[in-house]
Amino acid sequence: MLRGMTPSVSEAAAPGRWSALTRLAVAVVLAMAPWFSAAAVLPQLRAAWGLSDAAAAWLTLAVQLGFVVGAVLSAALNLADRVPPRRLILAGALLAAAANLGLLVAGGPVLAGLLRALTGAALALVYPPALKAMSAWFRSGRGVALGVMVGALTLGSALPHLVNGLGGANWRTVILTTSLLAALGGGIASGVGEGPYRFPPAAFRPAQAWRILTGRGVGLATLGYLGHMWELYAMWAWFAAFFTGVLAARGLPDPARGAAYATFAVVGVGALGCYVGGVLGDRWGRTRLTALAMLLSGGCALALAALTQAAPPAVLALSLLWGFWIIADSAQFSTIVSEIADPAYVGTALTAQLALGFTLTAGSIALVPVLVRAGGWPLAFTVLAVGPLLGAAAMRLLARTPEAARIADGRG
Q1: What angle do CA 352, 35, 332 make, to 5 degrees?
Q2: What residues does the Major facilitator superfamily (MFS) profile domain cover (predicted)?
């Protein structure tokens, strides 16, 4: 049992936990819709505003950086542990919806970039509190529950590529629709009650995030998470460009559209990976599952580096395997933190971990085109593989610590 949890409530006495998981997962996907809105209509924005490559990249990175700033502030203020999660999610979703709507009148990349950063900051009030809220509904089976949450988010991440492949819609309609979805998601989340395994209230301690992250157990879990994040978002951000080149090199017609459909499949298959990762994490132990997933994911990156000139079906098959394992471990890092961090500051710990991870993604996303220009896609994939391989080593170290006895009901 986790320290600070209510000891008298049994798993069987938590009716409605699957309903709560379903509603909160739907709420998070809807509330996070503004994150992906500009990506879905970026070609249209480039044409409408005459965006350069640098300005277009800024619109993508601004959300990541805004999320980092919002997460850092939230962690410093212990918001996720001092404010009920459903209220934070509602506030974040409504703010994100408003900032997203601002794109309709932005008129250019400067104001649009600031609005995208504000959108990311607002969404830092949605994602970490949602993970904490769901942890309060599950004690056993928590890895599966959070895996479903991240899997739903993964599927949402894939949808813009499907939109692009189908030809998209008017960009103003997309922006308006995603804003309405975010507000709806916040409303759904506000109706999800607190679970029976709720965490104790926290006092305001701005330095607590640093203390938690530098502790041995959470520190090693965070190092593993950083190795995972080094690879993940860079692969998601650049796979479409890579596969467009694969198809174009074979002289296939409309390679961009084919790459959009392929990217939807490669990213979307990760939703299944998240569920499988949750099941295996609960049954095998989270340190074992995360290390295995990162070794397989890093191995796929290295294999793809050697096979970039292979036939497109072979490249796609290997990429689908990569897309499955690259995200299969993601929710398990958050689950570990919920099991071994100070119960009063689980929300702060989750938020701080996410802030570090998304900070790293901005660097790896920016590094990929530099590596491609220097040595092609083989060099880029090789460098991306370094992260998960180092992350797997951190998780094996965590498995040997006393904290491992509190992970996955003692399975480590």
Answers
A1: 45
A2: 20-403
d(CA 252, CA 267): 22
CA atoms within 13 A on the CB side of 388: 31
Residue 393: CATH number of its domain: 1.20.1250.20
In whole angstroms, what separates CA 181 from the centre of its chain?
Answer: 19
In a domain, 227, yes or no: yes
- With H, G, I as helix, E, B as strand and everything else as coil, classify residue 221: helix
pLDDT of residue 234: 93
What is the distance between the alpha carbons of residues 292 and 257, in angstroms, rounded to a whole number?
A: 33
| Overall number of domains in the chain | 1
Task: Answer yes or no: is pLDDT of 1 > 50.
Answer: no
Q: Note whether residue 157 is domain-resident.
A: yes
pLDDT classification of 295: cutoffs 50, 70, 90: very high
Quick check: is 10 in a domain? no
For 53, 184, 189, 303, 391, the CA distances from 70, given in Å and listed in that order, are 26, 21, 20, 37, 25
